[in-house]
Write a structure and sequence with these properties.
This protein has 224 residues and is mainly beta. The chain contains two helices and 13 strands; from the N terminus they run E-E-E-E-H-E-E-E-E-H-E-E-E-E-E. Zinc ion (ZN) binds next to loops.
Length: 224
């Protein structure tokens, strides 16, 4: 159902648990929660996560008009459960052209949202500005702070359900979507929502690689 697990922070190969350690290990990042992407059957993966994840499984409800689910990923193993879940959606940008959205719930220290946002991580830097966006998450108004990131995307982060909530959009001006009232539901509470989700062509945003040096902060990619 999935590819060989990789590091959620760098997509590098992992040393699996063995006699000496029960952890998956990345040479660069040490012990990590192994990252998986559903390949053939994202719908099944989503339903399984709704039963087993230790973090919220966020889905927009309703989806923005003409948007669909384009991928599911998670970090964790069967023993400990998923400590990060990412849903990729795609559809028309409010300003025209195609757009992508990633919703990530993750326990602090996982580093998945940071990789997808294009920042070093594993967690966001101190959020000392004012929140710039708001969504409703499982019935709670949830403030989102902007995160400095490469200019091809917009990244927001907040806290919901006791863990990080990342909301990433490509291209950056697709952030206009947040001017509408975006409501997120946790599929763990509302499993029947999965029946109403539309699944479409896979998107590659979940494979967004870790940024190289000099490509980690807003401004560095100016002119690109
Ligand atoms: Zn790594």
């Amino acid at each position: 159902m999935t590819n060989v697990p990789t590091c959620p922070r760098c997509l590098g190969g992992l040393r699996p648990p063995d006699l000496w350690s029960d952890q998956w290990r990345c040479e660069r990042h040490g012990d990590v929660s192994p990252w998986h992407q559903a390949t053939a059957t994202p719908e099944l993966a989503l339903r399984k996560l709704a039963d087993t994840a230790t973090v919220p499984v966020w889905v927009p409800s309703p989806m923005p008009v003409h948007w669909y689910v384009g991928g599911i990923g998670w970090a964790g193993d069967d023993r400990a459960g998923a400590r990060a879940v990412a849903l990729a959606a795609a559809g028309p940008s409010p300003v025209g052209g195609p757009a992508d959205m990633l919703l990530v719930a993750e326990s602090p220290g996982t580093g998945l949202g940071a990789r997808l946002a294009g920042i070093p991580g594993p967690d966001p830097e101190q959020l000392d500005t004012l929140p710039e966006a708001k969504v409703e998450a499982a019935g709670h108004p949830t403030a989102l702070w902007p995160v400095g990131c490469p200019r091809d995307r917009t990244a927001f982060v907040g806290e919901a359900g006791g863990v990080w909530l990342w909301l990433l959009l490509w291209p950056a001006d697709a952030a206009l979507l947040l001017m509408e009232h975006l409501v997120l539901e946790d599929l763990r509470d509302r499993s029947t929502l999965a029946d109403r989700l539309l699944f479409g062509a896979p998107t590659d945003r979940l494979s967004t690689p870790v940024p190289g040096p000099g490509n980690t902060a807003q401004g560095d990619t100016d002119g690109g």
